[in-house]
Each structure stands twice: as C-alpha cells, then as structure tokens.
Amino acid sequence: MFNFSTDGILLRKIEYGDYDFIITYFTRSMGKIIVIAKNAKKSVKRFAGSLDLFSVMNIQCVIPKRKNSFPVLFNVDLDNSFTKIRTNTIKTGYASYWVELINSWMKQGKKQIDVYNLLLYVLDALNSGIIKKEVLSLLFQIKFMSISGFTPNIICCGKCLTPLDKIMQQNILFDLIEGKLVCDKCKKNKKNGIIVSKGTLKQLFWINNKNIKKSEIIKFPDFAIKEGEKLLESFIPCHLEKEIKSLIFLKRIRK
After folding, report:
1. Number of helical H runs and strand E runs in the chain
2. Cα–Cα distance between 192 and 177 in angstroms, integer?
C-alpha cells in the first residue's frame, strides 16, 4: 500500500549507493518533493523506462516510519516521456534550463499549480514542435518570473514612471540590478544594463499577459528573439545570484 499519489514531472535524478536513485519531482498537488527509488537500477518491472528527465507520470509513494527519511517511490504510471526532447540536443538544453530554474527557485513542499501547468505546457509544446523553441523559452521565463513574484518592470521607466509608449527613444536601457527600464532622461551614468527595443518589450509584455495558449499565434522576428533571450537570460541569473549551469550549456550549443 502507498501513502500518497500525485502527478509529477521529473526534474532531477542522482545515483545513491549501488542500486538506488534520489529523485526530485515537481508535482501537481505537492509542489517540489524529493523521493528515493530503492533498487531502481535493477528493478526492470517497476521502473524500466519511466525515470527519465522531463517525463510526466503519476507517482505512488510510501512514507517511512523513520523520521527525516525520504518518501519511498513505490510505483509509477508513465504518462508522457517526451522522447523527442531527449533525442534532440537543443531541445534538451532548453528543457534542462527550465527544470533547473524550477528546482533552484521552488521551495520544497509548496504547491504551485500555475508553475506546474506552465512547465507541462512548454514541455509538451517543445516535444511536439508546435511553437518555436526560442519563443517557448521566452514564454516560460517571463511567465515563470511573473508567477514567482519577480517580474521585471518592462511597462514604464522605473525612475520617472513614464509609460513605455510615451518614452521617446526606440531603444531603452534595462537595468539588470534593479530589474527595470530606465529612460534616457533618467539613466545618467548607469552602466549595468542591456539596451532593448520597444518592439521586443511590447511583445514580452503581450505574452506575459495573455492566456498561455494564445502564445501559439504570436510571431517573434529573429531580432526580437535574440533581444528577449539576452534580456531574460541575463536578468534571471542576476536576480537569483547564482550560476545556472544548464543555461551555460544551452548558450554553448545554441551558437
């Protein structure tokens, strides 16, 4: 008998001893949890092909009597293994970046259904190829930041509060440290920033404020994708104050 069951996405798997795995899941009903899969390396019947990164599954776990022990993974029912992600290096790079962000930022045991649905959506779209992977990554990053409470200010100057549409220049400084736009009148000697066009900022604002499924219709020109990538992939590590290893890998293989 198992003590709890929930749908989850496999974020991380590390070897533990000769036969076990320590696995991190991001679950629909419990947020991020860590479990141990005992004898998983030799248990062909229970776990074969179902413990791959990014896979979505229903997990059933037993809570051990001993305190401070990981729940024991008892059984899994695989829903989608997203095979087309793991067999494509670039897609693997994007998915690895997304799950590392969630694993780094989400607190253990805190339910975050909006983040779960977001990750499930982008993994499914990445696997099927219905949306460009670069646009999916912009969508994931801006919505993940919004849900998590550290959305960059891209709607007005963070100093004088002039709305984006009223700022005269077409290319605007984004302050990475403070996470906000700074118009020419206010920037003075600021150097910690990235120049971004108004068009790119408007598109990022649009995808952040629309229903996620409407993202399938948006068309990002190549220059906006590159600007958006530079902005978000610079701001997020700066805000988290940590190096994101999968992002370094993604940038290297994307060249």
Report:
1. 9, 9
2. 7
Cα–Cα distance for residue pair 172/182, rounded to 1 Å: 7
The model's pTM is 0.92
**Average pLDDT rounded to a whole number, residues 138-162:** 93
Contact by Cβ (8 Å): 136, 125: yes
Beta-carbon count within 10 A of 24 CB: 20
| pLDDT in the model for residue 82 | 96
Q: Please name each of the domains of the chain with its CATH number.
A: 4-81 (2.40.50.140), 86-254 (1.20.1440.120)
> Over the stretch 221-252, which tens digit does the pLDDT of each residue have?
999 999 999 999 999 998 888 889 999 999 99
Point out which residues pair with 4 in neighbouring strands. Answer: 61
Dihedral angle over CA of 92, 210, 104, 151, nearest 10: 130
Query: Chain-centre distance of CA 107, in angstroms?
Result: 14
The four Cα atoms 131, 134, 135, 139 give a dihedral, to 10 degrees, of: 110
Q: Which two tokens stand for residue 243?
A: 């190096």
Per-residue model confidence (pLDDT) at position 166: 95
Which residue is listed with tokens 């969630």? 102
